[in-house]
Write a structure and sequence with these properties.
- By secondary structure, the protein is α/β, with parallel strands linked by helices.
- The protein folds into two domains: 2-232, Rossmann fold (3-Layer(aba) Sandwich), CATH 3.40.50; 250-415, Molybdenum Cofactor Biosythetic Enzyme, Chain A (3-Layer(aba) Sandwich), CATH 3.40.980.
- 40% of the residues lie in helices and 17% in strands.
- It has helices at 9-21, 55-71, 93-104, 152-157, 169-172, 176-188, 201-214, 222-232, 259-269, 285-297, 311-321, 323-343, 354-364, 404-409, 412-415; strands spanning 2-6, 28-29, 43-47, 76-80, 109-112, 120-123, 126-129, 132-133, 164-167, 193-196, 218-220, 250-254, 274-276, 303-306, 348-352, 368-371, 381-384, 390-395.
- The protein has a 15-stranded mixed sheet, with helices on both faces.
- Helix 1 (9-21) packs across helix 8.
- The longest helix has 21 residues, at 323-343.
- It starts with a strand and ends in a 6-residue tail after the last helix.
């Protein structure tokens, strides 16, 4: 069994959805205590919130999850990071790689960033986002993990005491044997980590074959994790995803402050009401949440409660509360609103933003879900089954067409999964 530790909730459900689409069962666990000792799936995904918390806290969480996965029978562990390897000079990707290497007593750690399908690529060790160096893209404006250095070898080298090597596209394009020779040279040179280019999907497939043959720890973004899991699960019969979709209108919660979500909210607001909560409102969380719930009770159809603001609004909140403080205030507000909406009967939720998704899922008390295969919303729709099922669409902040939230508000992506968007 392969146990995957994802650094946020949206990424966890996204990868699981891609695997379910490929016919690989992959339960998503938000509370590692919900792991059973007799897990039957070949791949288990546990969602962490390790991307933006302090390094020591993040690694304590990753270590706890790793212990639970090992106890559940996972003999292989991998760490899934964002496609753009969102992190800071102190972590948390390098420390996670070092932790997995120490547990496995194996080095180097194989690394792979990017997601060519969505315009995130790595070439000669440099990270590009939608055709631009990541340092020239919208990722440079991320409020918590701004990516200002496109050289991933150099950037990851700041996060770990071990040297980072590179297997570039020119080698990977020659095939698996050439990649193996390059890995052998880098290992003999004492590299603690080896980053592989992801100029295109072919690079990813060769890297997955390299990982399968080496048995080394893996720290990677979505496509390599999916490719590796597909190989490990080959021949295992998938368990169908239980689909009991609850009825009712959709509640949308948006906390991401990026330009992609702001555009999606603008399109959504043409057809459905949107309430924006001010994280700097002096009345406090209880009053703001009560006001939002009262407003929601007056809505007869889909609606949005948001803390998303433009760059000027982000600057004001960060000046007052600090970057992490502002983010946590927004997450707390939206999590409390989500819990209140559930208590008032809402069972369909759309959440925009990785950190926001973590806060909302925790507030709703969801411990475990199955992701639905790719459909009209892409991937990200998941079902918490049980006596009182919930359906959630956890949307990464940087992904989706301009009208994807409007489409989700219509319930189309929940009622039936077909096509792709």
């Amino acid at each position: 069994m392969l146990g995957i530790i994802a650094d946020d909730f949206t990424g966890a459900v996204m990868v699981a959805g891609l695997l379910e689409t490929a016919g690989v069962s992959c339960p998503v666990v938000f509370d590692p205590k919900a792991l059973a000792s007799d897990e039957a799936a070949p791949v288990i995904m546990v969602a962490a919130r390790s991307r933006t918390v302090p390094v020591d806290d993040a690694m304590a969480e990753v270590a706890r999850i790793a212990d639970h996965l090992t106890a559940a029978g996972c003999t292989l562990l991998a760490y899934k990071a964002c496609a753009s390897f969102d992190s800071t000079a102190s972590g948390n990707i390098g420390p996670a790689a070092d932790l997995l290497a120490a547990r496995a007593e194996r080095r180097p750690v194989l690394m792979s960033a990017g997601f060519p399908r969505f315009g995130a690529t790595v070439h000669q060790g440099y990270l590009f986002y939608r055709g631009r160096l990541v340092s020239e893209s919208i990722k440079r404006l991320d409020p918590l993990t701004p990516m200002t250095d496109p050289d991933l070898v150099r950037f990851l080298g700041l996060q770990t005491p071990f040297d980072v090597g590179l297997i570039a596209h020119g080698t990977l394009i020659e095939g698996l044997d050439a990649a193996r020779r390059a890995l052998k040279r880098l290992t003999e040179a004492g590299m603690g980590h080896v980053l592989c280019d992801a100029s295109d999907d072919c690079d990813v497939e060769v890297t997955a074959d390299l990982a399968m043959g080496s048995g080394l720890p893996v720290v990677a973004s979505d496509p390599l994790i999916v490719a590796l899991a597909r190989r490990l699960a080959q021949g295992v019969v998938a368990v169908p995803v239980p689909v009991r979709i609850p009825a009712g209108p959709v509640a949308i919660l948006a906390g991401s402050t990026g330009p992609v979500v702001l555009e999606q909210l603008a399109v959504l607001g043409r057809a459905h009401p949107v309430l924006v909560m001010d994280v700097l409102d002096a009345r406090g969380e209880a009053a703001l949440v009560a006001e939002a719930l009262d407003w929601a009770a007056r809505q007869s159809g889909p609606f949005t409660v948001s803390t998303a603001v433009d760059a000027n609004g982000v600057a004001r909140s960060q000046a007052a509360l600090g970057p992490l403080g502002a983010a946590r205030r927004a997450e707390a507000l939206l999590g409390s609103v989500a819990a209140g909406l559930r208590d008032r009967g809402r069972r369909r939720f759309v959440v925009a933003g990785g950190e926001t998704s973590g806060a909302v899922v925790a507030a709703l008390g969801v411990r475990r879900v199955r992701a639905l295969p790719e459909g009209v919303l892409g991937v990200g729709v998941c079902v918490a089954d049980g006596e009182d099922p919930l359906v959630l669409y956890l949307k990464p902040g940087k992904l989706g067409a301009p009208d994807v939230l409007a489409l989700a508000a219509s319930g189309a992506g929940f009622d039936r999964q077909e096509g792709g968007r």
